Amino acid sequence: TVESAIEAIKNGARDYLLKPFNTEELRRLVRTCLDQRRLMNENSQLKNQIRLYQKGQSLAFLLDVDKLLPQAVEFLCQEVRGGRGFAFLVTDQTPTQFFCECLSEEMCRNMAESLLGRLQNLSGTSFLQMQDIPAKRNWCAAIHSLCLIPLIYEKRLEGGIVILNGEDAEADCHLPYEQLSFLAQQTRLGFANSCRFRGAQDLIYTDDL
């Protein structure tokens, strides 16, 4: 009946047919429903790509490291359900100046010191699963996936970003590789730009001699 059809649509049905109906009409309706679903999925993917692009652009053009790193950590954690993470700078081979998201600075320092050697050997973003994660000492709970992003300038490690799975995430749940890789690339670009900008500012007061 029309009444039951309206009630069904209110509860999420895509469309309806009135009895009696022929099979061709049913096939046409199913094709239409599948086409609508495909277009909705494509639209959702496009919106997601635009959202990532806008975030990436804002990171690539931030020239202040003190603004870039906390913003990058926030954006990266947003891509992970319940994501946690932190960024840090390196001074004299020692992690300093932490930018934390859902973690204490002491916890971030412990993790950064444990991961510093691994970050120094990376040239790009790296993803670790449980079996690849180094022995944890004084780390936060429920870690089974890690994203490591080295911040390199002039072939020297100047800092790093570490993103963790959410505390309530399933053990077999993987981090969103493509989204994190894209934002990591834009963050590294922004970091390199900020280092060049800082060098130019230094030259205002001190010349090459």
Report on this structure:
There is one protein chain. It contains five helices and five strands; from the N terminus they run H-H-H-E-E-H-E-E-E-H. Strands 2-1-5-4-3 form a five-stranded antiparallel β-sheet. It has helices at residues 2-10, 23-60, 65-78, 105-120, 177-205; strands spanning 84-91, 94-101, 126-129, 145-153, 156-164. With 209 residues, it is of the alpha+beta class. Helix 2 (23-60) runs parallel beside helix 5 (177-205) and helix 3 packs antiparallel against helix 5. A hairpin with a 2-residue loop joins strand 1 and strand 2.
State the end-to-end distance.
88 Å
Mean pLDDT: 88
Report strand %.
15-25%
Number of helices: 5
Described by its quaternary structure, the protein is: single chain
Low-confidence stretches are none
Question: Quick one: overall form?
Answer: elongated
The value of Rg in angstroms is: 24 Å
List how many beta strands DSSP finds: 5
Helix content: 40-55%
Look at the helices and sheets and give the structural class. alpha+beta
Write out the strand line-up for the largest beta sheet, numbering strands in chain order.
2-1-5-4-3
